[in-house]
Amino acid sequence: QLVESGGGLVQPGGSLRLSCVVSGFTYSGYCMGWFRQAPGESRKGVATIDSNGATDYADSVKGRFTISRDNAKNTVYLQMNSLKPEDTAMYYCAADSFCSAVPAGFRYWGQGTQVTVS
Hints:
Radius of gyration: 13 Å
Number of strands: 11
Oligomer: single chain
Strand content: over 45%
Distance between the termini: 31 Å
Largest sheet: 7 strands, mixed
Helix content: under 10%
Shape: globular
């Protein structure tokens, strides 16, 4: 089970930190990812972090977003700074054995948390 939190309404230039708490499987061995989906658009990758802590980011968020994980707390985070209106979307946490830049590469998903930048 993956449960996201931390979304909300923020002004442009502001910050939010999303959290995703994982239960039910050996979290530390999994790749974790954040994806987002705006209305009328497909779900797109934002950032991933593998079991060794290696990270990857979409070009649109590089330098503004930071993904991290706390294996002791079974939690993955997404720190979002310098938010823009185009960052508005439902943000989803995902997990699988290997990292992928596409949603089809992840088997386990949370329900999402809404981020609105306005």
